[in-house]
C-alpha cells in the first residue's frame, strides 16, 4: 500500500527478506500506508550456497502473512505439489521461489531500490534512496537482515584482507573451490553444510572445530509430528525451533523473553541451539570430510600462495595445517555500529543491550518511531527471532505497535 508522496510517509520498511516482507504484509492488512524497499530474498539468492537445504523444517519455514494464505504449503499447492513434513528438508532454490511468490502475492508494492541513509529530522526521519530521492517518514522499520554482521575472528583477519579467508556469506557457489584444500572453521550448520558442498564440488575440505565432537540432530521418526507416539510427543514436544520443552518455550513465549535479566538473555542467546548439523548432513560429512575436533586457530599467516594455520588443542599441543583457502563459518554478531545505513548521530544515540538495540515490547528502539526486527531483535525476544518462524510474532506485534502510533 503506497503512501502519498507529497506528505510524510507514515512508515518505511527497509529490507525484503522474510522479516521485511512479513512486516509489510501485516501493515498492508492493517491498512497502514507505507513504502517498502529492497531486492526480494536477496540474502537467500546471493549470500547462501547453491545446493543448500534449509535446516528449519517445512512447517517452520513459512513467512507470516496475517491470513495464512501465503504459507509454504499454499505456495506448494499453487505450484501443484503436495506439502511435505520433517523428513523432507526444503531446498534453497524452492525457498527463494517461495519468497518471490510471497512478495508478489502479499507485498506487490515493493520498491526494488536500496535505501542509502536514514537521518533524524525533527522527530521524524529523512530517508535517502539510491536513486537520489529523499523524503520524510514518521516511522522506519529496519529489516535489513544479517548482511553487516558476518563475523570473521581477529586471528583470520589478515588472511581475509589478502583474500585467503572469507565468510560463507561471500559465496553463492562453493564450486569455485573445486580442486583446492579448504579449511572450514566452525561446527555449526553453515560449517558442516559448506564442508559437504565443498566435498561434493571436488574440493578437499577439512573441518576445524573447537568442540570435542561434531553434533548432528536426530532423524525424525515420522514425517509429521502428529504421527509420533504420544509418549514421545510428551517427552519431546515438537516446536518450530526443534523438539523439546525448552525449545518449545523459547519459540512459544518470545514476548516474555525480554523480562528475563540481561545476563540470562545473553546466556540463552549464546547457548540455545548451539553448534550442530541437521540430521540429514551426518552421512554427507562423516567418512567423507576430514575433521579436526578440539582445536582452535591460534594464528594464521599467508604461505606459499595459501594459508598456514597454527592450531592449538586443549592440552597446549600445537599442529600446523596448510590450506589454499580458509572458510570462516563463524556466524554473525549483531553490532549497531556496523549498521552504516543509520546516520552516525542517530546510531550513536540508541540505547543498547550489549551491541544490539534496546527494544520495547513493540520492537521500538529508544528513538521514537525507529523499529528493528529480525536478528537485531533476538537480544530482546530470544532465539526465535533468528529464524523465519519468528516472522509471525515479530510482524504481528510490530505492525500493531506502528499502527497504534499513528
Ligand atoms: C546459511 C544460512 C542458512 C540459514 N538457514 C535458515 C533456515 O533453514 N531456517 C531459518 O528459519 N533461518 C535460516 N537462516 C537464518 C535466516 O537468514 C533468517 O531467518 C532470515 O533470513 C532473516 O530474515 P531477514 O528478513 O531478517 O533478513 P534477510 O533475509 O537477510 O533479508 C534482509 C534484506 O534486506 C535487504 N537490505 C539490506 N539493506 C538494505 C538497504 N539499505 N536497502 C534496501 N534493502 C536492504 C537485503 O538486501 C535483504 O534482502 C539461515 C541463515 C544463513 C546465513
UniProtKB/TrEMBL annotation:
Alphabetized UniProt keyword annotations: Oxidoreductase
Entries under InterPro entries matching the protein: Auxin_biosynth/cation_transpt, FAD/NAD-bd_sf, FAD/NAD-binding_dom
Limits of the FAD/NAD(P)-binding domain: 11-215
A Pfam family per the record: Pyr_redox_2
Gene3D superfamilies in the cross-refs: FAD/NAD(P)-binding domain (3.50.50.60)
PANTHER family with a match to the protein in the record: FAD-DEPENDENT URATE HYDROXYLASE, FLAVIN-BINDING MONOOXYGENASE-LIKE PROTEIN (AFU_ORTHOLOGUE AFUA_4G09220)
Descriptive protein name: NAD(P)-binding domain-containing protein
Protein species of origin: Streptacidiphilus alkalitolerans
Amino acid at each position: 500500500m503506497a503512501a502519498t508522496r507529497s506528505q510524510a510517509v507514515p512508515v518505511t520498511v527497509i529490507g525484503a527478506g522474510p522479516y521485511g516482507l512479513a512486516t509489510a504484509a501485516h501493515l498492508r492488512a492493517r491498512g497502514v500506508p507505507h513504502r517498502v524497499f529492497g531486492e526480494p530474498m536477496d540474502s537467500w539468492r546471493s549470500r547462501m550456497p547453491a545446493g543448500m537445504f534449509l535446516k528449519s523444517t517445512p512447517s517452520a519455514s513459512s513467512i507470516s502473512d496475517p491470513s495464512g494464505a501465503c504459507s509454504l504449503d499454499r505456495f506448494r499447492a499453487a505450484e501443484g505439489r503436495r506439502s511435505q513434513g520433517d523428513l523432507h528438508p526444503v531446498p534453497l532454490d524452492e525457498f527463494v521461489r517461495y519468497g518471490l511468490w510471497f512478495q508478489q502475492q502479499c507485498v506487490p508494492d515493493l520498491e526494488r531500490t536500496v535505501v542509502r541513509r536514514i537521518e533524524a529530522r525533527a522527530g521524524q526521519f529523512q530517508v535517502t534512496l539510491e536513486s537520489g530521492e529523499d523524503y520524510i517518514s514518521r516511522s522506519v522499520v529496519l529489516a535489513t537482515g544479517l548482511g553487516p554482521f558476518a563475523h570473521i575472528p581477529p586471528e583470520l583477519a589478515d588472511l581475509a584482507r589478502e583474500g585467503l579467508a572469507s565468510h560463507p556469506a561471500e559465496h553463492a557457489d562453493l564450486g569455485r573451490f573445486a580442486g583446492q584444500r579448504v579449511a572450514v572453521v566452525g561446527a555449526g550448520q553453515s560449517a558442516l553444510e559448506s564442508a559437504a558442498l565443498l566435498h561434493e564440488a571436488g574440493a578437499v575440505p577439512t573441518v576445524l572445530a573447537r568442540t570435542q565432537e561434531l553434533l548432528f540432530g536426530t532423524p525424525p521418526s515420522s514425517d509429521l509430528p502428529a504421527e509420533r507416539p504420544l509418549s514421545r510427543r510428551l517427552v519431546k514436544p515438537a516446536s518450530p525451533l526443534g523438539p523439546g520443552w525448552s525449545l518449545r518455550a523459547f519459540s512459544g513465549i518470545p514476548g516474555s523473553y525480554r523480562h528475563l535479566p540481561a545476563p540470562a538473555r545473553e546466556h540463552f542467546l549464546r547457548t540455545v541451539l548451539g553448534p550442530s548439523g541437521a540430521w540429514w548432513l551426518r552421512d554427507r560429512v562423516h567418512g567423507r570430510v576430514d575433521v579436526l575436533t578440539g582445536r582452535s586457530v591460534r594464528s594464521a599467516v599467508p604461505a606459499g600462495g595459501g594459508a598456514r594455520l597454527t592450531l592449538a588443542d586443549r592440552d597446549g599441543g600445537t599442529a600446523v595445517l596448510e590450506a589454499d583457502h580458509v572458510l570462516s563459518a563463524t556466524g554473525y554478531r549483531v553490532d549497531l555500529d556496523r549498521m552504516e545505513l543509520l546516520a552516525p548521530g542517530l546510531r550513536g544515540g540508541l540505547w543498547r543491550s550489549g551491541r544490539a538495540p534496546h527494544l520495547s515490547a513493540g520492537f521500538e528502539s529508544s528513538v521514537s518511531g525507529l523499529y528493528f526486527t529480525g536478528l537485531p531483535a533476538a537480544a530482546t525476544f530470544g532465539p526465535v527471532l533468528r529464524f523465519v518462524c519468528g516472522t509471525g510474532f515479530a510482524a504481528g506485534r510490530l505492525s500493531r505497535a506502528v499502527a497504534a502510533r499513528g
